[in-house]
Amino acid sequence: MDLVTEAARALVGVQSDWVEATHPVEASELRRFMHAMMDPNARHRPGYTGPRHDMPVAPLGFPVHAYRRAAADDWDPIEGHGDPEFDGESRLMRPHLPRMPVKLRGVLNGGYDYEFFSHARLGERIFCRSAYRDVKQRQGRSGPMVIVTIDDEFAAGGERRKLFLCTTNLILR
Amino acid sequence: MLKVETREPPVRFFEDFREGQDLPSVTRGPMLVGHQVRWAGACDNYESEFHHDEYIAKAQGLPGIILSGPLMASWLLTIVKDWMGRDARLVRFADQNRGSTMPRDLAHFHGKVKRTYEDAGRAYIELECSITNQRGEVTTPGSALVEMPRRGAGA
């Protein structure tokens, strides 16, 4: 059974526009992120100044997880589980990419490759653009699976678009 | 009362590492659903219900709740930064979510210096790193490339 349809293949190479995270980097977000990661580094704490950063900075991987539900978003994403087309991958993290039409329900994160350039700073705006790099079918231990490869760039606002990081993410369907 | 130490790691230099060197292993756990819930809250991401609802996890064919791969990878990344010191610059990091981490599993973090080299006047260290569970299964293999300060090179 070919799970990678022409419609899915047609999305390879499609790149989104730059999309801004819901709000600039907030101190309360950094606090929760530090606690979740058990990151003891003082450079993420309010009031920090040091030789390399003159203000608190976000953990390096933070921009990947900075796309949150907007206050005006009244749609409960968990409702998506009742939708046979629910892909689970494009709501919060990449709402700016078109859905990858794959007729499998499960979604697992296969891992990331990160290339880091700079920290996002407290109060800084985060922008992301994404592109489908590849989609292919493989036979897994429990049946066929589809591997979707997505490239993301995360950058600051402004004309220069200072890069925070680039990632390549494997999504397993 | 839970005491959380907040600090920066000490400065370490390129000269402090050699190829083949094992880095000090770190153990965390037992892992709890609470760790996952805290991560979901930090990311404001509750969509993948198999991360916190055992009924749904089993209905999807999983053995039970599994902790988020990006959570485990983020812990590994944090420990890599700690190993390499305050002034190191993480250039690249990669992780694979190869095996599941479930509630009550232990997570052992391992690292080894794979290569040390210089390029265009900069000093780099390549690391192999991983998370294994209490059964010795590698759940999260990874790698990192770190630019290191040189001893005596000044700030």
UniProtKB/TrEMBL annotation, chain A:
<protein>
    <submittedName>
        <fullName>N-terminal half of MaoC dehydratase</fullName>
    </submittedName>
</protein>
<dbReference type="Pfam" id="PF13452">
    <property type="entry name" value="FAS1_DH_region"/>
</dbReference>
<dbReference type="InterPro" id="IPR039569">
    <property type="entry name" value="FAS1-like_DH_region"/>
</dbReference>
<dbReference type="InterPro" id="IPR029069">
    <property type="entry name" value="HotDog_dom_sf"/>
</dbReference>
<feature type="domain" description="FAS1-like dehydratase">
    <location>
        <begin position="11"/>
        <end position="155"/>
    </location>
</feature>
TrEMBL record, chain B:
<protein>
    <submittedName>
        <fullName>Acyl dehydratase</fullName>
    </submittedName>
</protein>
<dbReference type="InterPro" id="IPR029069">
    <property type="entry name" value="HotDog_dom_sf"/>
</dbReference>
